[in-house]
Amino acid sequence: MWIEEAEELFKSYFPYYLFIVLPMFIIISPINPVSAAYEFPVYRMQHYDLHGIAHGCRSASVNLEARSLQSWGTSRHCVVTRIQDLTVDYFRNIRGKAGALLIIFPEDVSVLSHEEKQHLMMLEDVMLAQELNIPVYFVTWTSELEKIATEISTVVSTDDRTKSASEALFASVSANGYQIVINPRNPSPKTDIKISSIQGNLAGYAVEGKTSTIAIVAHYDSFGIAPDLSFGADSNGSGVAVLLELMRLFSILYSDPKTHGRFNIIFLLSGGGKLNYQGSKKWLEDQLDSLDGSIIQDASYVMCLDTLASSDGLYMHVSKPPKEGSPASVYFKELKLAADRQTIINVEGVHKKINLADDLLAWEHERFSIRRLPAFTLSSLKSHKDLLRGTVVDTYENFNLERLVQHTQLIAEALASHIYNVSGSELFGGSLQVDKTYLEAWMKFLATQPRSAQLLLGKDNALITFFKDAFSRYGRDVRISHSTPDKRDPDYMFYEVTRGTVNIYSVKPAIFDLILTMIIILYLGIVYLVIQKFSSFYNLACSLTSKKKVT
């Protein structure tokens, strides 16, 4: 009789108790489901078009299984790796076959060795050479990420032939896996694009009814593999800082009638410098193609400032060597004379013709040289191909402030010697000298915020407003001009999504789910048979025990 009651209990009440008690065991379990999910800010790779050529990654969404450099195999995998471990060959293989790439970036790039920095810059150059179809993101290192990357590296590769089939199966089942999920907005083209350039003047006094003009130009935007990681301390924060210091110094001289210079000085902070100098191009079109004319038409020379603290050398880049006795030639001589007084600085001239067949110009002065204006670029880099001009390695921690002060002193002395026709004299001394604290303040301000062009769009940008206030403090006739791409055939185009959030979930591999499903089915099948055939199992057990007693 009790057998029938037990059978009835299993059939009627046991399933309900199972549904109630099992969730309670899950709730009071010591395993915390929250600890299996992680969330980090991520920075998307560059995504823009320039002269009809696509650059950067086209896709943004990721929902893939995480694998290491050695264990990934298909487009269903997101490769997770440290930037130091990623080689050019690895990247080219990932670009064509993997589903996505998540790169762990150092918390402080200044701790990288010289070889690691060179490797990173070369990798940036290769990655931006052509468009990518897979999403590429960067995430800053944390201890939690280090743990995740270590566990991912233990996942057995499907191509690992050093293990037996049973060992590989057991390792793949027992290993912990991770799912990478990034769900940003759709990377659609930006519609309201305005690249701003700021202009300010210092008017010189007229000599025989005519006043010559000197233009000093620097682009303020930065560039790197990821817009939100591009701080551009040297390229071109240093050029901006030197321009603003020159503006401060000469505004003091021009405010005194005794030291009022005979040249008009135009100061221009141009936007879109890393996009083939779009800001300078638009500014020149406005100046030279207007019916009213412009003082830039009578320019003695245009001095462009670009990356001024990367070496002890100072190079004057020209598209055409200046004629003997021309204003540009005189300035170069004054620059060498000033350098002779500072023996640690070497001044050289570098001549490179403009190759009109190239889509990209080498230096900003070429924009002015094309319009037949005498122009040159001052830089501490000898070649325009130097990878330091566009890298996330260019941070304030890697910056040499003392070198910038020396180069600023040199440039200012040479400019003052030419303007006041006092060759070989030191004009900036005593109370009127290059202010190191002023340069340091500007460099810290510029190098603590990313200045990639797509982050500075719009006329109400805080950085542009800050530049305008500085120009208004020292210059006159301050203006802001805006460059916008043509709607029918744009020279450049930016896209939404430069940053996002990555969710990393701790999961088991797919084969684990398959085996677990088979075990659950087998277990439920056994439970079902026990419940349905309980009386038969009981009678069988009784018959076996009774036989043993008889014997």
Automatic annotation (TrEMBL):
Residues 210-413 form the Peptidase M28 domain. It is a single-pass membrane protein. Keywords: Endoplasmic reticulum, Glycoprotein, Membrane, Signal, Transmembrane, Transmembrane helix. Pfam families: Peptidase_M28. The keyword Signal applies. It comes from the Eukaryota. The keyword Transcription does not apply. InterPro entries: Nicalin (IPR016574), Peptidase_M28 (IPR007484). The chain crosses the membrane at residues 16-38, 510-531. Gene3D superfamilies: Zn peptidases. One of its GO terms (cellular component) is endoplasmic reticulum membrane. It is found in: Endoplasmic reticulum membrane. Belongs to the nicastrin family. This is Nicalin.
